[in-house]
Design goal:
Helices cover about 5% and strands about 35% of the residues. The N and C termini lie far apart (about 40 Å).
């Protein structure tokens, strides 16, 4: 699948300006773009807190989750598709060391490998992750999931799946139906989200063919809800 590369400021720059960009925004609405495949054409994204949960919700033009990567039979070089919410959370808030990069919730599908916690299986379904992103010019989309340097023992979440990258594999209620992607996270696990800002992204990622750092690149970005990754969305209480 050929997907457009992101234009505009990088994630690190966006995180610095998000406090002043779109300060009055709640959800982020985006015009439909026929150049983007319907399952990845974001038209609205939001995060609300309601009944003890943070609810991450993205609406696309149609067929949420219908498009998935072709299986290759190998881990190296395999593809990952994702619906992603970059946020202003600190990496400490989701179980990693402080100030490691841009924290994002990602709902992913990858048919060639499992990365569930405790050795579980998840290659046959869409499922959520916390990831920490960093800019890297070696990646087609300009971003990577942050690598863990060999020989280091950083703070990691209990549900870290064992990959040498900053990724977590919690079991959150995740639903994809019609034009909606939705994840429910208990606020007791992520209370800091109530004051966070966010954006919405759809993307294709790729495992490095040689399994070298960067191990997992954002290869292409399909769409950014704000258009410029300014993270203008504000988390609000639900009705």
């Amino acid at each position: 699948m050929r997907i457009r590369k992101m234009r505009g400021p990088g994630l690190a720059t966006a995180a610095l300006v998000c406090a002043t960009a779109g300060a009055a925004a709640h959800e982020i609405a985006a015009p439909s773009d026929p150049a983007v495949m319907a399952p990845f054409d974001i038209v609205e994204t939001r995060i609300v807190t309601d009944h003890g949960h943070a609810i991450f919700r993205t609406r696309v033009r149609a067929d949420a989750g219908k498009a998935t990567p072709q299986a290759t039979g190998t881990f190296a070089g395999s593809e990952v598709y994702g619906y992603v919410w970059p946020t202003t959370l600190n990496s400490w808030d989701v179980g990693f060391e402080r100030d490691q990069g841009i924290v994002a919730l990602a709902v992913t599908f990858h048919p060639d490998f499992d990365d569930a916690a405790y050795g579980g299986k998840n290659r046959d379904r869409w499922h959520p992750h916390w990831v920490v992103l960093a800019e890297d010019a070696a990646c087609g989309g300009g971003l990577k999931v942050q690598d863990i340097p060999a020989g280091t023992t950083p703070r990691l979440p209990e549900t870290w799946p064992g990959a040498p990258i900053l990724i977590d594999s919690p079991e959150y209620k995740t639903e994809l139906a019609a034009d909606i992607v939705e994840v429910h996270i208990p606020l007791e696990e992520i209370g800091a989200i109530a004051s966070a800002s966010f954006d919405g992204v759809t993307a294709g990622l790729r495992v490095d063919a040689n399994l070298h750092a960067p191990l997992l690149c954002v290869a292409d970005v399909l769409k950014v809800a704000s258009g410029d990754l300014s993270l203008p969305g504000k988390v609000v209480p639900g009705n």
